[in-house]
Amino acid sequence: MSYETIVVEQRGAVTLVTLNRPQALNALNSQVLADLIHAFAAYDADPDQRCLVLTGSEKAFAAGADIKEMEAQGFAEMYGSNFFAGWEKVTATRKPWIAAVAGFALGGGCEVAMMADFIIAADTAKFGQPEIKLGVAPGMGGSQRLTRAIGKAKAMEMCLTGRMMGAEEAERAGLVARIVPAADLVAEALKTAEQIAGMAPLAAIANKEMVNAAFETGLAQGILFERRLFHGLFGTEDQKEGMNAFVGKRQAEWKGK
Ligand code: HXC
């Protein structure tokens, strides 16, 4: 399948999606969203694909939602079309995915990176929510996900001043899982994705659901949710296979059921 604004490649069990609007620093317009919704749904539905990496270019992961597309829009159009609500289809992806970020991840770019299960950053990465400088505010989850990731003080400062945060500060603050040299970014992200792709598929989904539940529930509810899912995994063949392989000192062969 070929797309207008992204490039999708399959590397074994890993899908690599590259944002490809270099002339606009990968600014996210409606076509990018439509392409990503299609690519992520195809990934989620393909039993042979086990992890996905979303990346941009060396200069920009994405410099935000497309300002030129939004400029002329009024409230009625934005509200009427529920502008960018389609991103919820991307966050509904059940299988794991990683954002590999080099260069600018600003506004919607930062927000898309934060939709990922985790971010691997190049040492060149710069994160920011500069919408205030355009007379607006984050609209794709930034005020909520950034605050959950790095806490109120830094999130509020970043939203109110629009300043950028470099990779080191982002790692210290808990926004990114790991920093790698820019030249190794995609290779490192693919290596991590391959590791995840080698795990039992249902366990991968369950682990993702559990960690995400921590952002949606109180502690007792979250722990109950975890325990029930943990119990549920004992109904899978892969639990038997994984534990039997450990005891038998051999490599597990996952069935995905
Ligand atoms: C449309 C964009 C763009 C954007 C860059 N471009 N960002 N086009 N939307 N968000 C375009 C420029 O217009 C220019 O095209 C080309 O990409 C290269 O950008 P330059 O500005 O010339 O590059 P540079 O001088 O290196 O500066 C890089 C930059 C700057 C610092 C990242 O481009 C910048 O500040 N961009 C905007 C960042 C931003 O405000 N993002 C938040 C958007 S609002 P031309 O054709 O002129 O050469 C948002 C809201 C989310 O994301 C919520 C939505 C619901």
Automatic annotation (TrEMBL):
Gene3D superfamilies, alphabetized: 2-enoyl-CoA Hydratase, Chain A, domain 1 (3.90.226.10), Lyase 2-enoyl-coa Hydratase, Chain A, domain 2 (1.10.12.10)
Name of this protein: enoyl-CoA hydratase
Keyword tRNA processing included in the entry's annotation: no
Pfam families xref list: ECH_1
EC number of this enzyme: 4.2.1.17
Alphabetized InterPro entries for the sequence: ClpP/crotonase-like_dom_sf, Enoyl-CoA_hyd/isom_CS, Enoyl-CoA_hydra/iso, Enoyl-CoA_hydra_C
Any one Gene Ontology BP term: fatty acid beta-oxidation
Keyword Lyase attributed: yes
Function: Could possibly oxidize fatty acids using specific components.
Keywords: Fatty acid metabolism, Lipid metabolism, Lyase
GO molecular-function terms, A-Z: 3-hydroxyacyl-CoA dehydratase activity
Reactions listed under catalytic activity: a (3S)-3-hydroxyacyl-CoA = a (2E)-enoyl-CoA + H2O; a 4-saturated-(3S)-3-hydroxyacyl-CoA = a (3E)-enoyl-CoA + H2O
Broad enzyme group: lyase
Protein family per UniProt: Belongs to the enoyl-CoA hydratase/isomerase family.
